Amino acid sequence: MKLPLRLPGPPSLPISFSGRLHDARTATAVGRLLGAAVAVCFVTGLVSHVLQHPPALLANSLPSRPSWGYRFSQGLHVASGIAAVPLLLVKLWTVYPRLFAGPPARSVRHALERLSVAVLVASALFELFSGLFNTAQWYPWPFSFVPVHFAVGWLLIGSLLLHVAVKLPDIAAHWRRRSPGTLSLPAEDATDRRSLLVATGAAVGAVTLTTVGQSLTPLKSLDLLAPRHPDHGELGLPVNRTAARAGVTAESVRGWRLHVGGPRPYEITLDELRAMPQREVILPIACVEGWSRSARWTGVRVRDLLDRAGAPEGALIRVTSLERHGAYRVMVMPHTYARDPLTLLAVRLNGEELPPDHGYPARIIAPNRPGVLQTKWVSRMEAL
CA 152 to CA 250: how far, in whole Å? Predict the structure, then answer.
């Protein structure tokens, strides 16, 4: 028996797949769920960014109510982003044969379409997985997360809208369950599609239920995969940034005095602050990483401190922390927050003196406010 003179080479990458689940109907069914998750994530991400970095027109007019507003929107932002991860992976699985089909470009229009798809896939993968890393406070990159995540979010939504516009005829043709071309599918293919969609729904439900408890506290007993548990922390409240990490030591708070600036500036000691009329409020700490927890805070209303200094009613308020470094060491608070009766310079948490990691000697707590702007270790407040 003669052996062939030339050994066969490696098999070439196939450009067509026989599996019926790599079809337009399956891609559309998964894609509309993914599109809904991305839309919710984008809108709630905009809310979060505006509250953290308000544009000039809104700098002094952001709403302080509802008091739970940021907790709800940011919890929904992180939950929808996590839910989108398995949806994106399944969506890519349904369409990947087309991603690698040749030739790379049959025309200028086709080349532009392939380029837009490449931008869409890259930006979606970056947004979802960088956001996932942010929930764990793990940043394996040299750039600042917030501005880059925000910018790529616009790139993602723009490329998604372009992709939907290009593929709109295909999407419309395969939107309904009994769309043209699906009636003749073999029974086993229809069953496989249903099984894939059920498994995808189960995966989305599993990752959502095991992480959403970090902000939706009635489900906290199911909080198995989230990096934070709402009950784990000193006095039952988690901590992102400790006093040691912020460089706030016992020496730096010794002899603490609060400086309040305005037409009638003054200083006040911690004992004098405690002797002022105290208010008690129940407000959540809601962090950009997705966790939140309500707590009972006791302290002096910020508006009372400002009134004593003669601060104008509509003035922006600059709050400075004792921490030595950090992007939020100095925070500017709109008058809508500063004048809200729920906004306190708190000295007690859940009936106990503030621990150092929660901002001792005093910290800001305000309604509908991102956690990074609830300044700890406050040393100065002044009207701008």
Answer: 41
CA distances from 1 to 6, 7, 16, 184 (A): 15, 16, 35, 48
Using the 8-state DSSP alphabet, how is residue 220 labeled?
G
Domain end (from 189, 222, 255): 222
Please report whether residue 3 resides in a domain. no
Task: Indicate the pLDDT class of residue 10, thresholds 50, 70 and 90.
Answer: very low
Place of tokens 């109510």: 65
List, for residues 11-54, the tens digit of each pLDDT value. Answer: 444 444 455 688 888 899 999 999 999 999 999 999 999 999 99
**What Cα–Cα distance (Å) separates residue 120 from each residue in 90, 131, 188, 230?**
15, 16, 32, 35
CA dist 342 and 344 (Å) reads: 6
What is the span of the domain harbouring residue 177? 20-222
Using an 8 Å Cβ cutoff, are 365 and 359 in contact? no
Phi, psi (deg, nearest 5) at residue 330: -115, 130
Tokens of 299: 């302290």
The 10s digit of each residue's pLDDT in 193-247 is 889 999 999 999 999 999 999 999 999 999 999 999 999 999 999 999 999 999 9
CATH number of the CATH domain containing 143: 1.20.950
CB-based burial label for 322 (10 Å; 0-12, 13-18, 19+): buried
Which two tokens mark 10?
A: 């490696």
The pLDDT, as a whole number, for residue 18 is 54
pTM of the model as a whole: 0.90
Specify whether 356 is located in the same domain as 239. yes
Name the pairing type of β-strands 363-365 and 344-349.
antiparallel
Q: Could you say which of 166, 190, 222 is where a domain stops?
A: 222
- Structure tokens of 122? 């890259």
Q: Which residues contact 360 (CB under 8 A, 6 or more apart)?
A: 243, 253, 353, 354, 377
